[in-house]
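Annex B. Sample input.
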Amino acid sequence: MIHPSEFGALRAFAAVAEHRSFSRAAEQLGVSPSALSQLIRGLEARLGIRLLHRTTRSVAVTEAGDTLLAEVGPAIDSLTGALAQARSAARRPAGTVRLHCFHAAADSFVVPMLPKLAHDFPDITLDLTVDDTVVDLVGSGFDAGIRIGEVIERDLVAVRLGGDIRQLAVAAPAYLAAHGAPDTPRDLLEHRCIRWRWPGQPQPYAWEFFDQGRWFSVAVTGPLITSSRAVMMKAALAGIGIAFLKEESVAEEVARGALTPLLETWSVPFPGYYLCYPQQRQMAPALRTVIDLIRSNVTPLPR
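Annex B, continued. Sample output.
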């Protein structure tokens, strides 16, 4: 087993042997001549041989020193080069970053920064999984994820992105003409609702509303269950039933009268998307770069 200090001592010995001078070797290594001399004396003591002949005017390598240098010199050069490459890699953003992201969050926070990532950081590969499944980020091998706050594991760092989210029940005028509009969330139990299921979950999502200081849910029923919000939107526009979608995603259809918002009194905003990642003492430069680029595209929240 190599002694923990021996690589440094061997490197010091190689430098003195190359320069035939303690002062010039010390200058190259960034240490004092006395510290350098101590390193080599310690190495000689551990090996039980003299490596250098020292006089007040010169330094010469002994026969044993020449033999050792021939054996370890290439290895020292190789290790020194490898360490230099490692330091360079630590400073240069490079490598693969695995990011798990909900569909809506990908469109809002990831897609806008892709051109800058590709142009300014060509050595970074973003491995992006766009999926509404709630996965164990660490256990699944992801470096980071973007998801709504209510499904973030407690041991992750969570950085808020953007503003609040509000979900609205919406229906096409044709559906409301045929079936009427619900007056309260409980009335939804008498309506045909287009339900959404979290991928990987056995039951459809129960619609959530707010009243008198508390949230409550309604387990609606209806003719369609889907894991696609795009399908929900198209089904609602076709008059199949009432859908429950993000307000911003239906804003255009509401503005042109293709969908009518319902039960707005019970629909209040809640904290939206968060960028989350494991707590780590030293973050890889590539991951830090991706995180910074995502955050740079987010409008700061008002205080």
